[in-house]
């Protein structure tokens, strides 16, 4: 059974199967909706650029999945 929980813990160290993070569209590409600066830092400052290169703009209804490659505790990042 799938369980979804809202959590305000540090997204970098949160141990889960998939980390789901909200993004919004900005003039320079997708931007985390709130409080994801540590997440961007965990990805070497390239998370937004990586999502942009995948065609993800942070617009309503968009979803992008990418492997975390050890940048965060969760193996998968889902941008919504």
From TrEMBL:
Top-level lineage group: Bacteria
InterPro entries to which the protein is assigned, alphabetical: Macro_dom-like, Peptidase_M17_N
Span of domain Peptidase M17 leucyl aminopeptidase N-terminal: 20-80
Record's protein name: Leucyl aminopeptidase
Classification of source organism: Bacteria, Bacillati, Actinomycetota, Actinomycetes, Streptosporangiales
Record Pfam families: Peptidase_M17_N
Keyword entries, A-Z: Aminopeptidase, Hydrolase, Protease
Keyword Ion transport carried by entry: no
Keyword Membrane: no
GO molecular function, one term: aminopeptidase activity
Organism: Nonomuraea ferruginea
């Amino acid at each position: 059974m799938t369980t979804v929980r809202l959590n305000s813990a540090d997204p970098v160290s949160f141990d889960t199967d998939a980390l789901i993070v909200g993004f919004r569209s900005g003039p320079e590409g997708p931007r985390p909706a709130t409080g994801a600066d540590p997440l961007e830092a965990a990805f070497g400052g390239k998370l937004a650029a990586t999502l942009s290169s995948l065609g993800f703009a942070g617009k309503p209804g968009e979803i992008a999945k990418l492997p975390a490659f050890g940048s965060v505790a969760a193996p998968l990042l889902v941008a919504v």
